[in-house]
């Protein structure tokens, strides 16, 4: 049977377009042996289709002569000749062209826009899938995503910006491995902060159910809370978590219960970073309602805006020099089991804290019992019963001593 004939088994018929596996990898590799500048019109048009820019193929057939046409095209050419009016489509095309001329292992280029829409589900922000899909946002665009890009995609919440920032950082830590996120519980004894940072929004809700907070878990849908945000973002603390879960402030024991398990989960390094953030003079509690304020550009700076975007890391949602976690579990040569002693110490601390909570409950019950007993002692019948029962009690004590 030849390779082109129908063959049962293998990848499902629906998996190609759904998962972005529709490319003929063998033909693609052969094309890459030829410099892009020498690609034919048909090859360039097929490549545009693979990039998710198929709606511009008809214009490309009339204008493009070879790959060199695209390489020499300016922003104005792309808009006028190809009809690419969406700024993110132009950015996507330019990043893809740059990647063709790069010799680096471009794992992020393997994550197409279909993968990114599923990734939004994983990080708890499915409400933006339509905008990201229309923008054809792929893995490369996530890597170079700017604050202005996010605002153009109608993402205005500070919390959601931080959620996307830390989700991109998790992808960088894991070298843009497509399956690096953890969606379901597995063998997670002595789980490390690095592994928790890979938790999806659904996995975080599963954790809440495991610590007896099941009734509040559904409140995290669409919140943008995932493992990377919990572990890597200093501004995201247990107060913000309780706020998003809608746990009332007067339920102090419940909030203390959440804080105990939250701190045990994220590890000592993350706890220290969050504490330092709270103690900083400009600290503001992270809420779901805070909005990102667009940067105001000074008059006369528009001509140099493109250059500024390339030079200023703070323009990126996740800066290229973002501080990476220093914990041993995030290191490449980390061996599982090294942090078990630290985990056991945290577990002992958790048991002590739970014991203290249990002691508080016991003291409350004991004081209530004392009040009830006091009221009973005031009744004459109780004194009569006590006087009648005391002799037998003394006899019993004497018999027991004998």
Care to describe what's here?
The chain contains 21 helices and no strands. The protein has helices spanning 15-19, 25-32, 41-50, 57-63, 67-71, 75-81, 87-100, 113-122, 129-134, 139-143, 147-152, 158-173, 193-196, 201-210, 227-232, 238-244, 252-266, 268-279, 305-311, 340-377, 380-401. Helix 17 packs antiparallel against helix 20 (340-377). It starts with 14 loop residues before the first helix and ends with a helix. With 402 residues, it is mostly helical.
Global geometry: elongated
Strand content: under 5%
The helix content is 40-55%
- The end-to-end span amounts to 98 Å
List keywords for this structure.
402 residues; 0% strand; mainly alpha
Brief rundown of the structure:
The chain is mainly α. The chain contains 21 helices and no strands. Helix 17 (about 250-265) packs antiparallel against helix 20.
Show the helix and strand layout.
Blueprint: H1 15-19, H2 25-32, H3 41-50, H4 57-63, H5 67-71, H6 75-81, H7 87-100, H8 113-122, H9 129-134, H10 139-143, H11 147-152, H12 158-173, H13 193-196, H14 201-210, H15 227-232, H16 238-244, H17 252-266, H18 268-279, H19 305-311, H20 340-377, H21 380-401
Helix pairs in contact: 17-20
């Amino acid at each position: 049977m030849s390779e082109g004939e129908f063959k049962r088994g293998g990848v499902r018929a629906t998996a190609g377009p759904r998962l972005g596996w529709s490319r003929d990898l063998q033909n693609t590799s052969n094309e890459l042996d030829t410099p892009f500048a020498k690609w034919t019109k048909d090859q360039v048009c097929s490549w545009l289709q693979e990039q998710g820019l198929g709606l511009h193929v008809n214009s490309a057939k009339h204008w493009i002569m070879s790959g060199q046409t695209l390489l020499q095209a300016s922003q104005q050419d792309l808009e006028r000749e190809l009809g690419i009016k969406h700024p993110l489509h132009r950015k996507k095309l330019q990043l893809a062209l740059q990647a063709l001329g790069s010799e680096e292992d471009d794992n992020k280029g393997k994550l197409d826009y279909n993968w990114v829409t599923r990734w939004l589900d994983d990080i708890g922000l499915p409400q933006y899938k339509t905008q990201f899909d229309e923008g054809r946002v792929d893995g490369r665009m996530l890597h170079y995503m700017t604050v202005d890009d996010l605002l153009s995609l109608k993402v205005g919440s500070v919390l959601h910006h931080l959620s996307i920032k830390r989700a991109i950082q998790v992808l960088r830590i894991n070298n843009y491995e497509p399956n690096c996120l953890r969606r379901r519980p597995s063998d997670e004894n002595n789980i490390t902060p690095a592994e928790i940072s890979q938790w999806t929004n659904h996995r975080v809700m599963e954790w809440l159910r495991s610590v007896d907070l099941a009734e509040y878990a559904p409140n995290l849908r669409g919140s943008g809370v995932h493992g990377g945000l919990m572990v890597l973002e200093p501004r995201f603390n247990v107060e913000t978590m309780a706020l998003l879960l809608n746990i009332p402030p007067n339920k102090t024991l419940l909030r203390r219960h959440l804080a105990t398990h939250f701190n045990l989960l994220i590890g000592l390094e993350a706890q220290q970073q969050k504490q330092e953030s709270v103690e900083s003079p400009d600290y503001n509690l992270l809420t779901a309602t805070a909005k990102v304020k667009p940067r105001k550009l000074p008059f006369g700076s528009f001509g140099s805006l493109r250059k500024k975007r390339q030079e200023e890391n703070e323009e990126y949602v996740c800066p290229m020099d973002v501080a990476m976690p220093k914990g041993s579990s995030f290191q490449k040569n980390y061996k599982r089991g090294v942090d078990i002693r630290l985990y056991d110490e945290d577990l002992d601390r958790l048991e002590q804290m739970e014991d203290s909570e249990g002691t508080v409950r016991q003291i409350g019950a004991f004081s209530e019992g004392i009040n009830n007993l006091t009221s009973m002692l005031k009744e004459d019948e109780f004194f009569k019963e006590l006087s009648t029962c005391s002799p037998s009690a003394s006899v019993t004590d004497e018999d027991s001593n004998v």
